[in-house]
Amino acid sequence: MPPGGADLVRRRAGVCLHLTSLPGPHGIGDLGAPAIRFMDWMLAQGLSVWQFLPTVPTGYGNSPYQPLSVFAGNPLLIDLDGLVEWELIDAGEADRCRHDLDPAVDYDRVAAAKSRALRIAAERFQASKDSGLNAEFEAFVADNDAAWLGDFAAFAIARALNGGAAWPGWATSDRRAFVDSLERRYSAELERVKLTQFFFHRQWRALRAEARRRGIILFGEVPIYMALDCADAWSHPELLYLDDAFRPVEVAGVPPDYFSADGQLWGNPVYRWDVHADDGFRWWIERLRHALSGTDLVRLDHFRGFDEFWSVPLGTGTAREGRWNAGPRHALFDALVAELGAAPFVAEDLGIITASVTALRKAYALPGMQVLQFLVEADEFDLGRIEEDCVCYTGTHDNDTTAGWFAGGSAPVGDEAGRDRQRRIADNLESTQEMIHKMMIYQCFKSSARIAIAPLQDYLGLGSSARLNTPGRPEGNWRWRVTEAQLQDAGVDFIDELVGETGRG
Fold first, then answer.
1. Contact 415/409 with Cβ under 8 angstroms?
2. What b/e string do you get for 283-301 counting C-beta neighbours within 10 Å, with b at 16 or more?
3. Sign of torsion, CA 55 294 37 369?
4. Which of 5, 92, 270, 418 lies at a 20 to 30 A Cα distance from 264?
5. Annotated catalytic, 348?
6. What's the DSSP call for residue 15?
7. Is 0.90 topped by the overall pTM?
8. In what order do the strands lie in the sheet with 264-269?
9. What is the DSSP letter of 480?
């Protein structure tokens, strides 16, 4: 049973929507009132699982899978109106961050505006030392400083002092002496980084309390890899395959797959699993303990990588040139069970999955995943093959929306192959083109899977312009946002009916 005692046994229906995609006045979704209103929208539709992507501070490409820290919260998600309520900024200062024109996220503009507001809030906190909030802040620092917060603050300040350059370009051989120097010279700046993380933590705790009050399960995610340019790589380089100049020797990815004929070259450094094993996988235990402290359910990204991982020599043009290497397998999960018990994890077991990956997942009773977009194009589509012990999706954040996928997919819509494909999908779903998103959701809900989830874009029947991420495309992702008007559209009334018809809630 997950923290808070959430019931994960009964059949449930949910929605995938990353927090950046929420509506709101400040150019990006946040942890404030729009998130609360979205949970109320969920309740009205009978949905009780909210899945979102990693809530970490993002680096390259604004991707939540290339974080600046695997422990820290993303400051861009902090609700400025909440800071007004705490009297750390005024309404005018929050209003100067308004961004009402393009509904998509303009990360540069949002980051510049919010950074100014957060600095003002932190400086006012430092000047006033409000007794109530200060006691909370001191407790937050005491609980997290040694584990990750101190390292993240030092990394953030050092990176800023070096013009945002990646740490291998400015790291020293004596990291402890370097951090001691930062603490002597930049103590106020370090505290402001920690205060920003405190603001995020306090607002997240409030959001989670509201979710529990509504009976909504928060479903988070832990990416398997860290980025090279992140606080954790800087503070624990021994955990990664790096050379003497702290450059990756090999990088992570996957071989050719559904998304790319050349595979996916992610560029993250790969782990030295032997070093992790030497201390009983302590870093992983603390990382997952931290994830569980804020959510009820956690998806383990790229689960296959724990069994064997695809490693590509640095400088290789495509992921085709990689090879499989043995992962930590049972040793890691035995250590996790010993420390965390039967934790509520879901294995992201998509792609080419071998018998050993399935055996590893089932050895620890971890639910897997099924994606209908991958299944219904088959000549012999059989919903009955979806087992109970999984999470079934219409599509994931990496897929096109269902409407966009049906309209185009892998073959141009205008040629005969494309038309044959559409007819096959429509026949398998017993659907018309106009109803395709609703029929995909119905099949997802009707399946035996304990949890059924559709991206919000599919509930709204949106096309490819609402796609959140296109794997292999380095820029232009993670920008889509829903509008308040779309959430108020009466066209979603079918959701509650399907929830009731399929016995979910």
1. no
2. bbbebbeebbebbbbbbbb
3. positive
4. 418
5. yes
6. E
7. yes
8. 264-269, 250-254, 308-313, 323-326
9. -
The maximal CA–CA distance of the chain, rounded, in angstroms, is 71
- Are 83 and 32 in contact by the 8 Å Cβ rule? The answer is no
Angle between helices 416-429 and 436-446 (to 10 degrees): 50
**CA within 13 Å, CB half, 416:** 0
Helix axis angle, 436-446 to 494-501, nearest 10°: 30
Choose, from 79, 221, 229, 348, the residue flagged as catalytic: 348
Q: pLDDT per residue over 94-107, tens digit each?
A: 999 988 767 899 99
The long-range contacts involving 182-190, CB below 8 angstroms and separated by at least 24 positions, are: 182/154, 182/157, 182/158, 183/154, 186/157, 188/126, 189/157, 190/153, 190/154, 190/157
- Give the whole-angstrom CA distance, residue 189 versus residue 182: 9
Which residue in the list 191, 387, 398, 496 is annotated as catalytic? 398
3-state secondary structure string across 324-338: EEECCCHHHHHHHHH
Q: How do residues 394-425 score in pLDDT, each as one tens digit?
A: 999 999 999 999 998 544 555 777 888 888 88
* Strands of 61-158, DSSP E: none
State how far the Cα of 274 lies from the Cα of 327, in Å rounded to an integer: 9
Place of tokens 């400083």: 145
Cα Rg of the chain (Å, integer): 23
Sequence-ordered strand ranges (E) for 148-295 = 217-222, 250-254, 264-269
**How much of the chain is in helix, strand and coil states, percent to nearest 5?**
50, 10, 40
Known catalytic membership, residue 90: no
One-character DSSP codes across 239-261:
GB-B-TTS-BSEEEEE-S-SS-T
How far is C-alpha 136 from the chain's CA centre? 27
Computed from CA positions of residues 68, 69, 75, 77, in that sequence, does the dihedral angle turn out positive or negative? Answer: positive
CA distance from start to end of the chain: 18
Phi, psi of 276 (to 5 degrees): -60, -40
d(CA 401, CA 117): 35
Task: Give me 476's structure tokens.
Answer: 């232009």
Distance CA(502)–CA(215), nearest Å, equals: 19
- Give how far the C-alpha of residue 345 lies from the chain's centroid of Cα atoms, to the nearest Å: 14
| 398 in catalytic set | yes
CA–CA separation, 220 and 74 (whole Å): 14
The whole-angstrom separation of Cα 411 and Cα 387 is: 30
pLDDT band at 5 (very low <50, low <70, confident <90, very high): very low
Each residue's pLDDT tens digit, 47-92: 999 999 999 999 989 999 999 999 999 999 999 999 999 999 999 9
- The strand pair at 323-326 and 308-313 is best described as antiparallel
